């Protein structure tokens, strides 16, 4: 082997390795500061029922980076996981979400909304997760039944029994559970009987797949049928077209979420949309009813 070439290849390999390492490391370092600098926020995406009424929202984490612009959670959440930052980041998200529910509680037009919050497996499996949720519900004085925690099948890596017990304890605080990205994990369906979930979210990939083929449609039908046997609500996520919506509605899905109904937006915008679209939600003030 030509020693000069070998040296060249070695240097190139080292550089490639450095590039691969430095990108996530840079992001990691900045993520630590992002929380302090207030670059993180929640976006709210509406969920609508079969009559087209907005019943709630999913809170989605956003990072507005000063130079990179919007960084996708698909990019930075894995970094946060690697750094062990997810419990802290997740607690921040929950605190924000509870703050929003407290705000909505005081507003007749918004008081009936539910808010779904994504909880990562590492966050859920922290030993003090239940305490964190209980304390946040109490300190914000919210109606805990409005708070829905979205879990994925990944949490089950910690074992079915401990996870089921933790969910039962959390359920006693009033919160409800949704299984996110349902059907994309590797677990068996048997766990569904043991976990106190009230809702399944059909993953976007199944919703998209239903447009392509009969097999795709059959898959969605079987998910809805499992859910209905177990008395669970079904949410379809990633609904982009009227044709998808029509199929999902005919199949029996209860709630719909996707660009067809609204993109994730800042809280103020979400509240504005709600007031414009659903002013009828406003009940007659009590002092008027009395007369
Ligand atoms: P997810 O929980 O399954 O959220 C749904 C994703 O689909 C969101 O992506 C949403 O913006 C996107 N989406 C909604 N409707 C449509 C549609 O009609 N078409 C398409 N193409 N996409 C749609 P986003 O906001 O980029 O979040 C990606 C993932 O990052 C989430 O998937 C969730 O797993 C994770 N994530 C986001 N926020 C949080 C958070 O606060 N905590 C944790 N642990 N994870 C989060
Ligand atoms: Mg989700
Ligand atoms: Mg999802
Ligand atoms: Mg998904």
From TrEMBL:
Q: Tell me the first and last residues of the signal peptide.
A: none
Domain EAL, by residue range, is 24-278
Annotated membrane-spanning segments are 1-17
Q: Name one GO molecular function term.
A: cyclic-guanylate-specific phosphodiesterase activity
Protein keywords: Membrane, Transmembrane, Transmembrane helix
Q: What is this protein called?
A: EAL domain-containing protein
Q: Source species, please? A: Rhizobium glycinendophyticum
């Amino acid at each position: 082997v030509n020693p000069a070439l070998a040296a060249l290849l070695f240097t190139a390999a080292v550089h490639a390795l450095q590039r691969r390492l430095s990108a996530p490391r840079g992001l990691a370092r900045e993520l630590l500061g992002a929380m302090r600098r207030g670059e993180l926020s929640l976006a709210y995406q509406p969920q609508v029922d079969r009559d087209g009424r907005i019943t709630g929202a999913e809170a989605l984490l956003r990072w507005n980076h000063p130079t990179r612009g919007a960084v996708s959670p698909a990019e930075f959440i894995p970094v946060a996981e690697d750094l062990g930052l997810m419990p802290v980041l997740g607690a921040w998200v929950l605190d924000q979400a509870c703050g929003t529910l407290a705000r909505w509680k005081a507003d007749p037009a918004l008081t009936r909304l539910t808010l779904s919050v994504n909880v990562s497996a590492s966050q859920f499996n922290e030993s003090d997760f239940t305490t964190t949720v209980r304390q946040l519900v109490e300190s914000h004085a919210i109606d805990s039944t409005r708070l829905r925690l979205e879990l994925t099948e990944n949490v089950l890596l910690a074992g079915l029994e401990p996870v089921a017990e933790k969910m039962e304890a959390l359920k006693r605080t009033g919160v409800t559970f949704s299984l996110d990205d349902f059907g994309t994990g590797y677990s068996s369906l048997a766990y569904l009987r043991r976990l106190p979930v009230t809702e399944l979210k059909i993953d976007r990939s199944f919703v998209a797949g239903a447009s392509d083929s009969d097999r795709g449609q059959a898959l969605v039908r079987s998910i809805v049928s499992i859910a209905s046997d177990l008395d669970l609500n079904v949410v379809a996520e990633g609904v982009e077209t009227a044709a998808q919506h029509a199929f999902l509605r005919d199949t029996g899905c209860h709630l719909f979420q996707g660009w067809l109904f609204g993109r994730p937006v800042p809280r103020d915008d979400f509240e504005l949309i709600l007031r414009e679209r659903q002013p009828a939600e406003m009940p007659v003030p009590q002092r008027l009813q009395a007369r």
